[in-house]
């Protein structure tokens, strides 16, 4: 028969290992205890209100930083109204999606605004603990995907810039061929007596068009060079 003391020691060791993982993981981990159990058969708006009314009973340091604090000790045991320095604008949307997903939500992105004016985006996984027909607590994890989203946006801008450059180059080449023929014809017309003023106006317009064409060709070359050598954010001015 197993010694109860050994069983307790084993469980305590497991708990310590779990707490170590909890502290060391790179993802934000948290647990909210509802102030009052939230019946799952209550109207959706009542559920959202109840789920937002909670106390933070567990969180690691990564989560604390995500909430805008230096350490978990600052916010453990505090009500949600105290923890959130600036409630996320789409927090109610997250809770609505959480209820609709039968209290197991994956991949929801939450935007968090900070006092310094910055905004970070977190991808959340949240599941609810239901006891006797009511949600009593929620466990969740969140990863900061802000940098990844910024890189994806930069890639899209780079692809758009490259497409514009290639299109400009294709149009400019065709346009340049037409202008070459026009300017050549104007050179021939100068040898024939006629309206010199009108001829000068047409020549000036053609030369301006030629200059525009050269700029378009320059844009095409510039786009390809920038795509390879320079951060797109710098090319587009941030």
Automatic annotation (TrEMBL):
The catalytic activity, as recorded, is: ATP + protein L-histidine = ADP + protein N-phospho-L-histidine
Q: Which residues form the Signal transduction histidine kinase dimerisation/phosphoacceptor domain?
A: 165-221
Could you confirm whether the keyword Kinase appears in this record? yes
> What EC number(s) are associated with this protein in UniProt?
2.7.13.3
Q: Which UniProt keywords apply?
A: ATP-binding, Kinase, Nucleotide-binding, Transferase, Two-component regulatory system
Question: The organism sits in which domain of life?
Answer: Bacteria
Q: What's one GO MF term for it? A: phosphorelay sensor kinase activity
Top-level EC class, please? transferase
What's the protein name?
Answer: histidine kinase
Provenance organism: Plesiocystis pacifica SIR-1
């Amino acid at each position: 028969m197993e010694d109860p003391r050994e069983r307790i020691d084993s469980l305590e060791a497991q708990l310590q290992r779990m707490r170590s993982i909890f502290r060391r993981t790179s993802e934000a981990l948290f647990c909210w205890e509802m102030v009052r159990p939230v019946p799952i058969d209550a109207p959706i708006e009542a559920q959202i209100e109840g789920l937002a009314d909670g106390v933070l009973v567990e969180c690691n340091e990564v989560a604390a930083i995500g909430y805008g604090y230096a350490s978990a000790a600052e916010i453990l045991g505090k009500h949600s109204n105290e923890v959130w320095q600036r409630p996320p604008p789409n927090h109610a949307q997250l809770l609505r999606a959480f209820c609709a997903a039968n209290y197991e939500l994956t991949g929801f992105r939450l935007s968090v605004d900070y006092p310094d004016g910055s905004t970070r985006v977190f991808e959340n996984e949240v599941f609810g603990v239901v006891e006797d027909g009511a949600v009593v607590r929620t466990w969740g994890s969140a990863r900061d995907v802000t940098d990844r989203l910024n890189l994806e946006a930069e890639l899209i801008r780079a692809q758009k810039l490259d497409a514009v450059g290639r299109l400009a180059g294709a149009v400019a080449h065709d346009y340049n061929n037409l202008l070459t023929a026009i300017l050549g014809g104007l050179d021939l017309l100068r040898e024939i007596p006629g309206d010199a003023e009108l001829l000068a106006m047409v020549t000036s317009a053609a030369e301006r068009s030629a200059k525009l064409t050269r700029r378009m060709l320059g844009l095409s070359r510039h786009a390809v060079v920038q795509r390879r050598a320079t951060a797109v954010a710098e090319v587009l001015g941030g």
